[in-house]
Amino acid sequence: MDQIVLQILNGLDKGSAYALIALGLTLIFGTLGVVNFAHGALFMLGAFCTVTVNRILNLGFVPEGATTQSVGGFNFGSPKETPYLEHWFGEAAGQAIVDWSVPLSILFAIPVMLLIGVIMERGLIKHFYKRPHADQILVTFGLAIVLQEIIKYYYGANQIPAPAPEAFVGSFDFGAMIGMDAGAIIYPYWRIVYFVFALIVISAMFAFLRYTTFGMVVRAGMADRETVTILGINVDRRFTIMFGIAAAVAGLAGVMYTPINSPNYHMGMDFLVISFVVVVVGGMGSLPGAVLAGFLLGILESFASMREVIEFLPGVNQVVIYLAAIVILLTRPRGLMGRAGVMED
After folding, report:
1. Is 343 left (phi over 0), alpha (psi -120 to 50) or beta?
2. What is the largest CA-CA distance in the chain?
3. Rounded CA gap, 143 and 166, in Å?
4. Under a CB-based contact definition with an 8 Å cutoff, are residues 69 and 80 in contact?
5. CB-based contact 197:106 (threshold 8 Å)
């Protein structure tokens, strides 16, 4: 029982990332009809927003009169820098701000990712609205490679650690909480934080689309763009903003994922293909379907990664998502919650 609960938790953790990325992908496809293969790169850029903020918060200066370390009459090394945050706010407060750099990166990532999304849509994507999906895939995949190489050039090819705040370092005795033996299920705090964060973002997106005037117009435009345009509403501007919001969702998924998987320049590609499988399994254009499929496939992948399963079927954890996609699409060609007429022309 403890292994089952643990694998469900692991699946919800992976599924949170899949669901967030797939949610943004589906928003873009549902509003603009664009198959955006650069969406994984947006997840990667969000992670590097955290790296950037962490580096900025660690900037320092060499105090006047500081000397190098001396051993045996020889000086070596460089004088120790004093972080600006410690100089301005004191050592304790400065270290606390740096310690919380990952959550603080959200404040930096939201406007940055919104801007990147709008620039992408206005500068490139809008020219491919009426082009075949194959053209959209090629140009957005090329854009993803360009963004990946830019990050590699400026940040290097190695992983860059971005630790969670000290308050969330360590593990939580989940087994004791649900009435099992103490120590039966030990789960990292930050993975629980990531799952809760994903639920908040997903709920906020659904509430935004359902209960705000802006969201209602967007949903109406997704259903019948021509009629909404005839009513005098600038649908294109709203869809551009939605592209920016979708980019921000992917970026936030990357920001909070950095303590789980240290950022590297190819992490977007690692999630891209799986996220598209999630979108197709959930149903092209279906937001609830993308979220549902993200969590279901995450849990399935987690169970397939168990040692007992791998010993019985070696390598199944690498292909189980694709096998599940084949089975689901054979039985439900439109996906779990797909709509008639989407990509069927």
Report:
1. left
2. 83
3. 37
4. no
5. no
Read off the amino acid at residue 305.
S
How many residues does the structure list for the chain? 345
Residue 240, Cβ density class (10 Å: 0-12 exposed, 13-18 middle, ≥19 buried): buried
Phi-psi region of 112 (alpha: psi -120 to 50; beta: other; left: phi over 0): alpha
Rounded CA-CA distance 301/284 in Å is 21
Measured CA angle at 117 (ends 137, 19), to 5 deg? 70
Per-residue pLDDT of the chain (345 residues; tens, 9 = 90+): 667 878 888 888 888 988 988 888 888 887 777 888 888 899 999 999 999 999 999 888 777 666 665 555 555 556 677 788 887 888 888 888 889 999 999 999 999 999 999 999 888 888 887 788 888 888 988 999 999 999 999 998 899 988 889 888 888 776 666 666 666 677 888 988 999 999 999 999 999 988 888 888 888 877 777 888 888 888 888 888 988 999 999 999 999 999 998 999 988 888 888 888 888 888 877 888 889 999 998 888 888 888 887 888 787 878 888 888 899 888 888 888 876 655 554
Is 253 in a helix, a strand, or coil?
Answer: helix
> Using CA atoms, how far apart are residues 100 and 258, in angstroms rounded to an integer?
13
Burial of 97 (0-12, 13-18, 19+ CB in 10 A): middle
Predicted TM-score (pTM) of the model is 0.87
Tell me the one-letter amino acid at 76: F
d(CA 79, CA 249): 41
